[in-house]
Design goal:
The protein is of the alpha+beta class. Strands 3-4-5-6-7-8-9-10 form an 8-stranded antiparallel barrel. A hairpin with a 6-residue loop joins strand 11 and strand 12. Helix 8 packs across helix 19. The two termini are about 50 Å apart.
Length: about 1250
């Protein structure tokens, strides 16, 4: 049925909001009507206060509403004043106060009293303390598993799922309450401690193992399935959790019911085995029910402030159903930033922080995919990814002890009796800690200085005469490392120990760092790595990243056109943030000998990261997956090696994109994987910023020293990415040479998706299944291949639908699966109903795999069972639109006139139908040129309409043409058009900039002012009215005038990497062009003077000769071979104003006259391409103060510019008055 396209949404979505499949949950009691009259206090249905705390809350809320009412009364008095008329002409203040009133209501939810009541206190405390209680429970379960190994499978699954959740820790209360229920279930197994032998016979002659083993296996599967469901749910956007909240809540609640049942089964089985008796067991089970019900109720009411805020916004826009059918509303909700985001940043918490994936139209499509995807399908699709993470976590737990290497000389801690230093494993740091008499923590600076002094003392002792009284801890092979344990490296050494950047080093941090050093490395060697080796390693990978990205950009012209969009989207997503990190990092250059001392560890770490990425097939889908790959510790330790490995793999995909059509999701997933790394950087940056502020330090200054300034531009990159800096900054460029790259890349191992199929048309063979042969007679007559159309306001509203019905296993229903013309799979399920008149009514639903609403059909067969017709709709009880399906081939169906022609003149329509079908078949069989030309024209028109639709440029006439084309081409044809649309390069480039004059997105030619703009360029589309506009902006010192110099760009380019180069080339090209044009003007004047002299009397030959000498002597020097510039298109001599190509070589001197460029909109001649950038050539202007002879037009522009600047100042004054008036009102 309707596709994701705007035309489908306009055709149906605007008809009624009740057609969508999903509906928003009802609001809480007391909020049935939010449209209160102005000045009327809202009526809130408060629940009855059950205790003093609740009563106090009600009083506070009542007081708050009285204050709001008072504010409204004050506003009414203010409304008629002169200040209100001046400041608020459009009613913004009313909207503001109403918004504040609505916000106040959200705090008066009647659920609040129940949620904070004593009954929920136990559950709430259990959820909040869940993280602290889980390790103890796991340890206890491990002990029980040693007595009863058969429960190990459930304990293992529980431990892995818990570890994965702890890595994620998104603070979602629903998932936390679900894990609380899982924890309660596993606690039931602790009762096995009273059963000393698993083979002891109990009542009924069964051992506890025989009684519970199968149950334990089922529990392990349930835990794994629940972990997968929670993983899939946690990846959903905030907007999806709000709009689809009730559907996901029902799915997750099912696991709570399962765990509750499993706990009862465990309790009952153990009660029977231990001889408690059935009655006692039942009494114990009844006592469990109340707690289970309480947890489920808490689960249903647990929503974050961000979800509540967004839910209110969704309701304001008409509810979940209306929002899902409105692309504009979804786009607006995608930009939603919760008001709690600021508080979240201050807390340094991850709650409320969403994964910032791709932006743009593709992001809206991805959102629709999630919204129309059922939880069951999302969980099933997530299973493969979750299983990979499950295995990685399992392997990590198995090898956990192996990663902590026991080094020779490490102390064995048995008991702590004499002081905190006894808990330190490394003997050298133990000695320092003991001598300094430090408590459990020490300031990082003091610790590093003490470490430096200790090693200095050691080397002094070594230089002395050796005696038995001294123990030297420095070997001859490690003396080189002492050079790097100095005050200059204090920051790097402190960061190595102080993992949380608190400014203090704890004993656990010391043990963690010393225990993680490579095997056979001394502590001094390990410290030298963190003092200088990490910076050296990061510098190496940083340079490799820059080189890889530069080669990616140099490869862009070689990319297959079908992959161009995916490549551009990838670079747009990845480049700026990677460059932000690499540009701020302070590099170091050291000797190869020093590098060799750390190389073994560097290679081992790269190999470990590569193996982790290969395990997840280079697809990072969440922060917990990233943590599984990198291991514990701060992200900066692994950041550049990880980014390099990801970019290296993507570079190989770019190479494949030159020769083959790659699946469009391949690079999308690659970009999203790197965005998850950026999210980890964001989390680390936010944590550091919160710590610096807590310590009352200047965050900007601290980021200039932390981690070799890695986060400096990440914290504030405004100056670096400003237009002023980009004009001067030259990014590294590398030429791509394919011969230097690996030629043996296996595409099947590199790619996660199958390559795009070469054949766009698939041959389908319909077979009769065993169920078809045994189906009911009423079902048999409807089985087989059908083709048809559906209509609504237009006929049709979508392309031809085609499917083949088969009987289901019960023989009384039927089903089908196919792919719609726009590429989304769907499933048909249906049955039949015998009517009183002897007819059979067929009812079936069409459910799409994603993006689309379910559709319901009701129809009857005609007498010869060749036509199925009836009504359809988006609601099972509301089918107001018509459809028909026929068994005839689609090539015949497309010749059928629309129903309106049959209604007007049935006989004429039938004759037209027959003649058109016969003519089409004859032309097709004869390979008629007119037939192929017609198909070509249809394809071109359809693709052009799809392009307009994708760019939100479609109008009503376009929708009418869609309807005509949809009924005259087959489903396979339209599917081919959509595939071509997805993989073709847009004919009109789309720029990531809006016109500063009209405010619309710029398509085609983008004109940038070479003079204006400090933060960013002033951009204009090529409409004459926009080019003549006079504009101001807060970062523009003087108003922009139409006489300013422009560069015209007709290709999509990367904003941040290429803008500086384009502007530099434009300035240089303009200067070059002006010199040539000035020389041409001088030559032209000289020639005109000579020609006029020739008309004088022949007796004045000598005077003419002297005149020639005087005129030509000073100006023709060095002009030999000079040719006046001409237009490359019309060959006419060019003059101001004209255009000069900055992409062609300077010696080519390519000019285009104003008329040719305006009429042809881009010219290709020889090496000059229509996509080349052009700079506008106008005479160089002299400063206004110097040039007193400006013409009237220039003076007019100046006056208009001053008026525009004055208008801006007036707007600022008006806003200031408005804010003052608002403050007085409040």
């Amino acid at each position: 049925m309707p596709s994701l396209s705007n035309r489908r949404g306009k055709a149906i979505g605007s008809e009624t909001s009740s057609e969508l499949q999903y509906s928003a949950p009802a609001g809480p009691p007391g909020f049935e009507d939010d449209r209160d009259e102005p000045g009327t206090s809202p009526v809130i249905a408060f629940p009855e206060a059950v205790n003093a705390e609740d009563l106090d809350s009600v009083k506070r809320l009542d007081s708050a509403f009285r204050m709001v009412d008072s504010a409204q009364n004050g506003f009414r008095k203010y409304q008629g004043s002169k200040q209100a008329k001046l400041v608020n002409k459009s009613g913004d203040l009313i909207n503001t106060i109403q918004t504040d009133l609505a916000t106040s209501r959200s705090y008066a939810s009647p659920l609040k009293s129940a949620y904070e009541s004593e009954a929920f206190k136990v559950v709430r405390d259990g959820v909040n303390s869940l993280v602290d209680s889980l390790p103890g429970l796991i340890k206890a379960l491990d002990e029980v598993a040693k007595l009863h190994p058969f429960i190990g499978i459930a304990v293992g699954a529980f431990r892995i799922v818990v570890e994965l959740d702890l890595k994620r820790r998104d603070n979602d209360k629903k998932i936390a309450s679900l894990f609380l229920q899982m924890k309660d279930m596993m606690e039931a197994l602790l009762q096995l401690r009273s059963v000393k032998d698993q083979d002891t016979m109990g009542p009924g002659g069964m051992t506890v193992k025989a009684r519970m083993q199968e149950l334990v296996k089922q529990t392990a599967d349930d835990i794994t399935a629940c972990g997968n469901a929670c993983d899939a749910y946690s990846k959903k956007r905030l907007i999806v959790k709000v709009i689809k909240g009730s559907v996901w809540e029902s799915t997750l609640k099912g696991y709570m019911d399962v765990f509750a049942k499993r706990k009862k089964d465990f309790t009952f089985a153990l009660a029977i085995h231990t001889g408690m008796g059935v009655d006692d067991a039942n009494r114990k089970l009844i006592s469990l029910d109340s707690k289970i019900d309480l947890i489920i109720e808490f689960f249903q009411k647990a929503t974050s402030p961000e979800q509540q805020e967004l839910a209110a916004l969704v309701q304001k826009k008409g509810g979940a159903t209306a929002v899902m059918g409105n692309s504009d509303a979804l786009n607006e909700l995608l930009k939603f930033k919760p008001s709690s985001a600021t508080n979240t940043t201050k807390r340094g918490d991850r709650e409320g922080v969403e994964h910032s994936s791709h932006s743009g139209p593709g992001n809206l499509d991805a959102l629709k995919l999630e919204l129309f995807e059922s939880p069951e399908l999302a969980i099933r699709k997530n299973l493969e990814v979750f299983e990979r993470k499950f295995k990685m976590q399992q392997r990590e737990l198995t090898e956990e002890m192996r990663r902590v290497v026991h080094h020779e000389g490490d102390r064995v801690i048995e008991a702590v009796t004499s002081g905190p230093h006894e808990r330190i494993i490394d003997p050298e740091i133990h000695e320092i800690w003991k001598d300094m008499r430090w408590p459990g923590h020490v300031k990082a600076r003091h610790f590093v200085l003490a470490l430096r002094d200790y090693y200095r003392q050691q080397i002094d002792l070594k230089k002395r005469e050796r005696g038995e009284a001294f123990t030297i801890h420095i070997s001859d092979d490690d003396e080189w490392a002492l050079e790097w344990i100095n005050i200059n490296r204090l920051q790097a050494l402190a960061e190595a120990f102080d993992d949380d950047a608190s400014g203090f080093i704890t004993i656990s941090e010391v043990n963690q760092l010393t225990s993680s050093r490579p095997e056979n490395w001394s502590l001094l060697h390990w410290l030298a790595y963190w003092a200088i080796g990490w910076q050296m390693t990061a510098t190496y990978y940083r340079d490799k990243i820059i080189e890889t990205l530069a080669q990616m950009f140099s490869m862009r012209p070689l990319i297959h056109p079908a992959n161009a969009q995916a490549v551009e989207k990838y670079l747009e997503t990845v480049y700026k943030r990677v460059c932000t990190l690499t540009s701020s990092f302070v590099c170091t250059s050291q000797s190869d000998a020093l590098k060799a001392r750390f190389q073994r560890y560097v290679d081992a770490e790269e190999r470990r990261l590569r193996e982790g990425l290969e395990t997840v097939r280079y697809d990072i889908d969440a922060i917990d997956t990233l943590t599984l790959i990198t291991g514990p510790g701060r992200i900066e330790k692994y950041l550049f090696p990880l980014l390099y490995l990801l970019l290296k793999r993507d570079f190989e995909i770019f190479r494949l994109c030159r020769k083959m059509v790659v699946h469009k999701d391949e690079l999308w997933d690659s970009g999203d994987t790197i965005v998850w790394v950026f999210d980890a950087v964001d989390f680390r940056h936010n944590d550091l910023e919160a710590l610096f502020k807590q310590q009352k330090l200047d965050a900007a200054q601290q980021f200039k020293v932390h981690a070799s300034e890695l986060f400096d531009y990440w914290h504030d990159g405004t100056k670096f990415w400003s237009l002023k800096n980009l004009r001067e900054w030259e990014f590294s460029e590398y030429e791509y040479v394919d011969e230097n790259e690996d030629q043996d890349i296996d595409a099947s191992k590199l790619l996660n998706y199958p390559a795009a199929a070469d054949a766009l048309y698939n041959i389908v063979e319909d077979i009769v299944t065993e169920n078809d042969a045994q189906a009911d007679e009423a079902v048999k007559v409807i089985l087989g291949r059908w083709h048809g159309l559906t209509g609504a306001q237009r006929w049709p509203i979508s392309p031809i639908i085609t499917f083949c019905l088969h009987a289901s296993a019960d023989h009384s229903t039927y089903e089908a699966s196919d792919v719609a013309a726009f590429g989304t799979g769907y499933t048909i399920l249906g049955g039949y109903k015998a009517k009183e008149a002897g007819t059979t009514e067929y009812n079936f639903s069409m459910t799409y795999a994603a993006r689309m609403r379910s559709v319901y059909f009701t129809g009857i067969l005609d007498e010869d069972c060749g036509t199925l017709s009836g009504s359809w709709g988006y609601d099972e009880d509301d089918k107001s639109y018509q459809f028909f399906f026929k068994r005839i081939p689609p090539e015949v169906l497309i010749a059928r006139p629309p129903p309106s022609e049959f209604e007007e003149n049935n006989i004429h329509a039938l004759w037209k139908y027959a003649l058109t079908a016969a003519q089409n078949e004859a032309r097709r069989k004869l390979f008629s040129w007119s037939y192929f030309r017609e198909r070509r024209d249809v394809r071109r028109e359809y693709l052009k309409l799809l392009e307009r639709e994708e760019n939100n440029l479609a109008i009503a006439e376009d929708l009418d043409r869609f309807a005509v084309l949809d009924r005259t081409v087959t489903c396979e044809d339209v599917r081919c058009f959509y595939v071509l649309r997805d993989y073709r390069k847009p004919a009109i480039p789309s720029h990531l900039a809006d016109c500063d004059a009209c405010g619309e997105r710029i398509y085609g030619a983008r004109l940038m002012c070479l003079k204006c703009g400090n933060r960013w360029t002033l951009d204009f589309c090529d409409k004459p009215s926009c080019l003549e506009a006079i504009k101001t902006r807060d970062d523009v010192i003087e108003p922009h005038l139409p006489t300013h110099d422009f560069v015209k760009v007709r290709r999509a380019f990367h904003q941040y990497r290429e803008i500086g180069k384009i502007l530099r080339m434009s300035d240089a090209g303009l200067e070059r062009a002006r010199k040539q044009l000035a020389k041409a003007v001088t030559r032209s004047q000289h020639d005109n003077t000579v020609d006029s002299a020739k008309t004088e009397k022949t007796g004045e030959t000598k005077a003419l000769g002297r005149l020639r000498e005087e005129i030509s002597q000073p100006d023709t020097e060095g002009d030999e071979g000079f040719i006046s510039p001409t237009c490359i298109s019309c060959s006419a001599t060019v003059a101001y104003p004209c255009w000069y190509c900055i992409d062609c070589p300077a010696e080519s001197s390519i000019y285009i006259c104003q008329d040719c460029d305006g009429m042809k909109g881009g010219i290709t001649v020889n090496e000059h391409q229509e996509s080349h950038s052009l700079v506008r050539c106008t005479p160089e202007k002299v400063d206004d103060e110097v040039d007193g002879a400006r013409d009237a037009q220039e003076r007019l522009f100046a006056v208009e510019g001053k008026l525009a600047a004055l208008t801006v100042q007036m707007e600022r004054i008006e806003k200031l008055l408005e804010s003052l008036a608002l403050s007085r009102t409040s």
